[in-house]
Write a structure and sequence with these properties.
The protein is an alpha+beta fold and about 180 residues long. The chain has helices at about 1-20, 140-145, 165-170, and strands spanning about 35, 40, 45-55, 60-65, 70-75, 85-90, 105-110, 120-130, 135-140, 155, 160, 175. Strand 8 (about 120-130) and strand 9 form a beta hairpin. The longest helix is centred in the N-terminal third of the chain and has 21 residues, at about 1-20.
Length: about 180
């Protein structure tokens, strides 16, 4: 009887090891480094800096409070073949969700008229067109800390406040800008 148990235990152990190895906690297409984009508020305007240029952008999406009942989004589109984006004024802090106008982008889906994005907890950002990654940032932190940092510094999510020399030094080492190809 003991001879029968050991093969069963060994088989169960092998099965468990195979199942554990097959379960990868990383998303299949997750980048090898965390992606980030920079945000700050200057003169009552939410500003974006992708960190490095994004070529052929046909759309930008901001999702506030993603995954919650309060989740809402604003979507911009540009004609094909797309446009380059590196820095862009996004939304005003006063007057609700009035988007900053100008440039090749058109608002395809606006935030609700009564929505105050400055009360949101988080902001998720996505780029359409080129191969790109999404990014996330804490809205309260952007609003609270922007005035404490020079105008050339942007909050790159968990990476913190970075200027162009910081981004150049750390991109592909500790994080990826949203349009930087994964070096893996």
């Amino acid at each position: 009887m003991a001879a029968i148990r050991w093969p069963r235990v060994a088989c169960a152990g092998l099965l468990m090891a195979a199942v554990t190895a097959a379960c990868d906690t990383e998303a299949q297409f997750a980048p090898s480094l965390p992606p980030a984009a920079g945000f700050r508020v200057d003169g009552g305007v939410l500003k974006l800096w992708t960190g490095t240029p994004c070529a052929g952008v046909t759309g930008l999406t901001l999702i506030f409070d993603s995954g919650t009942r309060e989740s809402t989004e604003q979507v911009w589109t540009a004609p094909r073949p797309g446009v380059p984006v590196e820095r862009m004024d996004l939304l005003r802090t006063a007057g609700g969700s009035v988007p900053v106008t100008g440039g090749p982008f058109q608002v395809q889906k606006a935030l609700p008229a009564d929505y105050d994005w400055t009360k949101a907890g988080s902001l998720a950002f996505a780029v359409d067109g080129p191969e790109a990654y999404g990014a996330r940032v804490d809205v309260a932190r952007v609003l609270r800390e922007s005035a404490q940092h020079p105008s050339g510094s942007y909050l790159f999510g968990e990476r913190g406040w970075m200027d162009s020399s910081d981004v150049q030094r750390e991109n592909r080492k500790s994080f990826l800008t949203v349009c930087t190809p994964d070096p893996k």
